[in-house]
Amino acid sequence: MIPRRISRMVMVKDLQLGGGAPVRLQSMCNTDTRDSQTTLAQIQALAASGCELVRVAVKNHDTLPHLKKIIDASPLPVIADIHFDYTLALGSIEAGVAKLRINPGNIGSNRKLREVARAALDSGVPIRVGANSGSLEKELLSRYGPSARALAESALRNASLLENEGLNNLVLSMKGSDVRTTVEACRIVAASCDYPLHLGVTEAGPAEISAIRSSIALGALLLEGIGDTIRISVTGGVIEEMSIAKEILRCTGLRRDLGPTIISCPTCGRTEVDLLPLVRMVQRITSHITKPLKIAVMGCPVNGIGEARDADLGIAAAPSSSIVFALGKVLCRIPNENLEEEFGKIVRQFVSEE
């Protein structure tokens, strides 16, 4: 196991962040929060895909009555995302949010920040101080430029202001669209305090690009033991965020309750079947499983079994029938036309016996 940075515990309703809790999965709705029905439908879909915390945008005061409806019906703790108007933070606390996210670069004066801190303290609502490279304070930009140090200083400075009001129920995040800047800012803050850290790369692009940027940045930090919750930024569908996030946590070994790890060979001249549909079939069969299995889908029976001998279960594909194996030992050979049904049975039996 990776030795993790020791962070303090922050409770978001009944969900623990930091303090040795699993790295939590979160996302943000891309719906208009004033459309509570559509927003709740998206939250339900996120919950079904493994999301544990959800953030919604609070753009104006018209949003607040709808925010309360969402909070009351949501299966997940709801975080209010606040920019520019500190009174929206106060209204969100009154509506019953589980957590606030404020941007110190645009929330306003220190007086306004202190007022939010006092209301959060009175209500037991934690705050994420979310420093963003696109909205840093002018004084920090003048001193450091758009750098990791500026991001880190923004988060730490504003956390200190909240601490001075007696609020220690904080989570910090330092996000940029540049991978190196984001990683270095998180390292600086991780060495400077014990608050739980929320990791993410902002404006990371569509899924195929975000998956790479996010995996590099978050993977580097998580493998160093840094990070208590993650959000993958994707231009497009929020469910894609969850798929990427879960795979990052599976690959780093930080969550063993997110379902099987599926490995598959890149194929070569020995491959005599179209392997990608077979991989998709295995993904369908195992999509409901939360146990930490390793399942291999290999393109030929010549090297496949030996190369994937550490897999709990595997398929070595061939043109008419494929070999099913477990931990390097052959279990059976199944005609390809029956493979989905029969392999599904084997997987279900394996899971039930675990």
Automatic annotation (TrEMBL):
GO biological process: isopentenyl diphosphate biosynthetic process, methylerythritol 4-phosphate pathway; terpenoid biosynthetic process
IspG TIM-barrel domain ranges (all copies): 8-245
Pathway: Isoprenoid biosynthesis; isopentenyl diphosphate biosynthesis via DXP pathway; isopentenyl diphosphate from 1-deoxy-D-xylulose 5-phosphate: step 5/6
Reaction(s) catalysed (UniProt annotation): (2E)-4-hydroxy-3-methylbut-2-enyl diphosphate + oxidized [flavodoxin] + H2O + 2 H(+) = 2-C-methyl-D-erythritol 2,4-cyclic diphosphate + reduced [flavodoxin]
Chain positions recorded as [4Fe-4S] cluster binding sites: 265, 268, 300, 307
Cofactors that this protein relies on: [4Fe-4S] cluster
Residue ranges of every copy of the IspG C-terminal domain listed in the record: 262-348
Cofactor, free-text remark: Binds 1 [4Fe-4S] cluster.
This protein's UniProt keywords: 4Fe-4S, Iron, Iron-sulfur, Isoprene biosynthesis, Metal-binding, Oxidoreductase
InterPro entries: Dihydropteroate_synth-like_sf (IPR011005), IspG_bac (IPR016425), IspG_bac-typ (IPR004588), IspG_C (IPR058579), IspG_TIM (IPR058578), NO2/SO3_Rdtase_4Fe4S_sf (IPR045854)
Top-rank lineage group of the source organism: Bacteria
GO molecular function terms listed in the Swiss-Prot or TrEMBL record: 4 iron, 4 sulfur cluster binding; 4-hydroxy-3-methylbut-2-en-1-yl diphosphate synthase activity (ferredoxin); 4-hydroxy-3-methylbut-2-enyl-diphosphate synthase activity (flavodoxin); iron ion binding
EC number: 1.17.7.3
Family designation: Belongs to the IspG family.
Role according to the record: Converts 2C-methyl-D-erythritol 2,4-cyclodiphosphate (ME-2,4cPP) into 1-hydroxy-2-methyl-2-(E)-butenyl 4-diphosphate.
The protein's name in its UniProt record: 4-hydroxy-3-methylbut-2-en-1-yl diphosphate synthase (flavodoxin)
Organism expressing this protein natively: Candidatus Wallbacteria bacterium HGW-Wallbacteria-1
